[in-house]
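hey so u asked for the seq, here:
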Amino acid sequence: MAEGWARHLKSDCIEPFSAGVSPYKLSERAAQVMAEAGADISGQYSKHLDDLSGLEFDYVITVCDNAKEQCPIYPGKTKMIHHQFEDPTFAIGTKEQIMAEFRRIRDEIRDFIAGMPGNLES
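ran it, structure tokens below
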């Protein structure tokens, strides 16, 4: 969802890449709640960190503690930012309660991305 919001809200100044230490297929629930908000992520997928080796990044933003702990060190100018979000795939309850959790996290991620300065230097 973070890559989707970055593409939707900040594509003029951020080129996002979504990767993980244990990537999974795209969550249908995540795609659904993002579509409800006007952001199409149906073509996105999480890459493994190894798939992005060789690329230089200005910033690496981790959104879960597991990723923060296992993320490799990036040399040079790369700055690391961590912002923890709950993983809605672990939500329990009725279908409506689970979807409400996906929407809550979607909105938290949107607010985080929207609040990021365009060049991240500010």
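The beta strands are 19-20, 47-48, 59-62, 79-82. The radius of gyration is 14 Å.
lmk if thats what u needed
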